[in-house]
Amino acid sequence: MLAQFACVDGALVIDDFFKPIGYGAKIENVPHTTAEIVVIRKVDPVPFDLEKRGTRHTSTANFVCAVPGSIALVLSQDGPARAFTYRDGKLLVWPDCRTSVFA
């Protein structure tokens, strides 16, 4: 069911138990974060530069920094699944969840 919701353009918002709260959502703009980016289990030798990513990545990073304890995924048909969370003043990024696991 979550996979079907994720096909809709926009954010899929779920609770702690993976119950859908909303889908196709547009998250209101939150202030841009300047948090230090920490890449977890980096598999790509190129640094993860948030400024060179698109709106989905920037919005996701801003969201997790604005909502304590949240975890967000950026999914794409033709790219990796990326995970973001914010802990202790740092933006933690898993650039490819297919090749790394949460530490």
Structural features, described:
The structure is a single chain. The chain has 103 residues and is an alpha+beta fold. It has a domain at 30-94. Helix content is 17%, strand content 28%. The protein is built from 2 helices and 6 strands; from the N terminus they run αβββαβββ. It has helices at 2-6, 55-66; strands at residues 11-14, 20-25, 36-39, 71-74, 82-87, 90-94. A 4-stranded mixed beta sheet has the order 3-6-5-4, covered by helices on one side. Strands 1-2 form a two-stranded antiparallel ribbon. Strand 1 (11-14) and strand 2 form a beta hairpin. It is globular and about 30 Å long. The N and C termini lie far apart (27 Å). 17% of the residues are buried. The mean pLDDT is 75.
